[in-house]
Amino acid sequence: MRIGVLCSGGDSPGMNAAIRGAVLRGVEVHGFEMVGFMDGWRGFHEDDRVPLDRAAVRGISPLGGVILGTSRVQPFLSGRGDEADIQAIRDRVEEYGVDAFLLIGGNGTQTVAQLLTEHGIPAIGLPKTIDNDLSGTDYTFGFDTAVSIASEAIDRLRTTGDSHRRCMVLEVMGRDVGWIALHAGMAGGAQVTLVPEFPESIEQISEWVLSVRDRGRSSLVVVAEGFRLAGDEAQTTRDGLDGFGRKRLGGVAEVLAPLIEQRTGIETRATVLGHVQRGGSPTAFDRVLATRTGIAAADAAEAGQWGTMAGLRGDRIAMVPLAEAVGHLKTVPEARYEEARLNFG
Ligand SMILES: Nc1ncnc2c1ncn2[C@@H]1O[C@H](COP(=O)(O)OP(=O)(O)OP(=O)(O)O)[C@@H](O)[C@H]1O
Ligand SMILES: O=P(O)(O)OC[C@H]1O[C@](O)(CO)[C@@H](O)[C@@H]1O
Ligand SMILES: [Mg+2]
């Protein structure tokens, strides 16, 4: 069987380990021939492919980024996903002699895996995203690395914040969910953690910051990029949309810091962590999760379990139907937020 491997969406630490896991299992154990398309669907459309064999994946688990590159280039040339678009993919698939795909990506990529499978082009999904917003899996690889980097940033901001008795506001990624903020905030002992799922008022936030000051401490506020103040309609964005029509979230920390300063009289500084939290070497946890995801995906291909995604369920990797994974974000549940919120301030 010849399998095409392709990454789309943003990169996520662990993607290389996932490719290595899939190749070692697929090529060495199941006897597949594997080929990687460069830069997501661009490589597929432009016939830019590389062989994926044991040598190609040697030593790549500790490497950040992804050796194949990734992009948000559309799989469907017209963008409509109609029969002509599907036929164009079928023609290419035939030309390349590819029997099936392993698609590494987030929600959008898993949607494509499902669409392809429904149209008779077999695909299996490998979930990745630092945001941890994919349903059908407990955690996605990349998330643990992002949380570790954000936690370290909190530790560092705290020492300078404490020295100047300032309130420090750290903005982390996560798009429309607050998983990175929640976990990093808990790991770093943040006094306030703000997530998109549960808007809070500036009065409430200022009250927490003042109560921290009243017991002689400085506040560390973690805010997810998708957070909105209670009553605000829109999230904070930079330059509107990106080249693929998506909102460019970011900057909410810079909006909050002066508001907190105004209301509390406490000098406040904002830091936007940005793409630092997506870069560099994956944690051991992410390497292991990604490797196991790759292994499970290769085994699923051997077993013909098309239209599924290799999700983490407890300590097991389970092949879950793609329909369970796509279309609905995995948001922070109220109980998890309340558990943290009781200790704010
Ligand atoms: N409903 C859809 N129909 C067709 N193509 C889609 C659809 N959703 C997403 N895609 C395509 O899938 C690719 C990846 O989608 P997207 O940019 O949303 O990233 P993702 O996989 O969700 O990862 P991330 O977590 O970084 O957002 C892009 O090439 C996009 O064009
Ligand atoms: O890499 P880009 O296109 O700037 O996208 C940034 C977005 O991607 C993510 O890193 C992953 O989905 C989000 O947390 C963030 O909003
Ligand atoms: Mg997406």
Automatic annotation (TrEMBL):
Substrate binds at T129, I130, D131, R166, M173, G174, R175, E225, R269, H275, V276, Q277, R278. Its cofactor is Mg(2+). The record marks G108 as: Important for substrate specificity. It is found in: Cytoplasm. Residues 2-300 form the Phosphofructokinase domain. Homodimer or homotetramer. Its EC number is 2.7.1.11. InterPro entries: ATP_PFK, ATP_PFK_prok-type, Phosphofructokinase_CS, Phosphofructokinase_dom, Phosphofructokinase_III, PKF_sf. SUPFAM superfamilies: Phosphofructokinase. GO terms for molecular function: 6-phosphofructokinase activity. This is ATP-dependent 6-phosphofructokinase. It comes from Leucobacter manosquensis. Gene3D superfamilies: 3.40.50.450, Phosphofructokinase domain.
